[in-house]
């Protein structure tokens, strides 16, 4: 039986696929390459190019392959874009989830692990954020993911499709050998932008606001290494395979870093100056997002290996230096 990784050519999905291959697990990838890269997936892995909202395409994949678990990464994830194009997010993320679950129901596939997000909490009630805290998104991206969480709950109740929803905080870093990494076009995420400045591909970083309610006024986020994140998904697969019930887990480091602290860590990790200037706030950004991640550590036995943000940045820097133009396919 195979694990179907939907969105396996994306940043997090490709790290998951590589990890699964390393562990000799059977993997099949689906990706529409709208934001992913064919070059991020090993040529030896079975790859279907297509969109999960295309019923005929998805049915064909489930007909052809013996799939027992789905890991779903295929979603848009850019907060500011979602503020401008909310329907794009409800279509791809929320409706995409419905299409995927319909196919799983029709093919009797009973397990799914999927990417949720800290953005489902909106402005947190308290810090660190626990899984049981109020979910009240302040942007369409978070709302689209919260809807996915709600839909899967009812699909579980009606069809017995068991799920693990993983609420990611801020994902960063790359495969330590520099073979795969983060490459979005256009890039909006903090770490790769900082490293493009370090590389000289951008003049300076714009820090989006320094008047937030945080110690230095810049947004605080909880950064977790992409491989630690991939490992949590593998633990979640085994957790469901062991017959455990559906559940939701935060994935973060439980430590917050401000934008200014990230720039400082990147200066140390790269030895580069990294000029930065304060710019206007970006719409949709909460002051601070820090995970309580004890639940994943306790129940999934998740044991993240990267606890130093500088080490996380170093792995991304290795990828950036080896691939200054990313995958060179856009
Ligand atoms: N950020 C910034 N300058 C940039 C990109 C991001 O100051 O060029 C800030 C952003 O406002 C947020 C943090 O960095 O506070 C992380 O943003 P990112 O887009 O990486 O992730 P998000 O938190 O939106 O998922």
From TrEMBL:
Pathway: Carbohydrate metabolism; galactose metabolism. Its cofactor is NAD(+). Keywords: Carbohydrate metabolism, Galactose metabolism, Isomerase, NAD. GO terms for biological process: galactose catabolic process via UDP-galactose, Leloir pathway. Gene3D superfamilies: NAD(P)-binding Rossmann-like Domain, UDP-galactose 4-epimerase, domain 1. GO terms for molecular function: UDP-glucose 4-epimerase activity. The keyword Heme does not apply. Transmembrane segments: none annotated. This is UDP-glucose 4-epimerase. The lineage of its organism: Bacteria, Bacillati, Bacillota, Bacilli, Lactobacillales.
């Amino acid at each position: 039986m195979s694990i179907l990784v939907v969105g396996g050519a994306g940043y997090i999905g490709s790290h998951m696929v590589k990890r699964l291959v390393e562990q000799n697990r059977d993997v099949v990838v689906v990706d529409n390459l709208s934001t992913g890269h064919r070059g991020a997936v090993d040529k030896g892995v079975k790859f279907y190019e297509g969109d999960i909202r295309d019923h005929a395409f998805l049915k064909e994949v489930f007909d052809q392959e013996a799939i027992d678990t789905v890991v779903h990464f295929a979603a848009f994830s850019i907060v500011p874009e979602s503020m401008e194009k909310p329907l794009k997010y409800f279509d791809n993320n929320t409706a995409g989830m419905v299409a995927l679950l319909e196919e799983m129901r029709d093919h009797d596939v009973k397990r799914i692990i999927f990417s949720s997000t800290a953005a489902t909490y909106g402005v947190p009630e308290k810090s660190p954020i626990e899984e049981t805290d109020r979910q009240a998104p302040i942007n369409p991206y978070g709302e689209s993911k919260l809807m996915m969480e709600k839909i899967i709950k009812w699909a579980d109740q009606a069809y017995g499709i068991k799920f693990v929803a993983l609420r990611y905080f801020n994902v960063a870093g790359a495969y330590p050998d520099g073979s795969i990494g983060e490459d979005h076009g256009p890039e909006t995420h903090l770490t790769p932008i900082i490293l493009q400045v370090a590389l000289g591909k951008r003049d300076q970083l714009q820090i989006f606001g320094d008047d937030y309610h945080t110690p230095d006024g810049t947004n605080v986020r909880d950064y977790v290494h992409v491989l630690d994140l991939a490992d949590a998904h593998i633990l979640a697969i085994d957790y469901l395979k062991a017959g455990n019930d559906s559940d939701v887990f935060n994935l973060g480091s439980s430590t917050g870093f401000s934008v200014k602290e990230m720039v400082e860590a990147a200066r140390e990790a790269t030895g580069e100056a990294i000029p930065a200037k304060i710019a206007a706030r970006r719409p949709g950004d909460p002051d601070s997002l820090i995970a309580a991640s004890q639940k994943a550590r306790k129940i999934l036995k998740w044991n993240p290996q990267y606890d130093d943000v500088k080490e996380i940045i170093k792995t991304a820097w290795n990828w950036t230096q080896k691939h200054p133009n990313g995958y060179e396919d856009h």
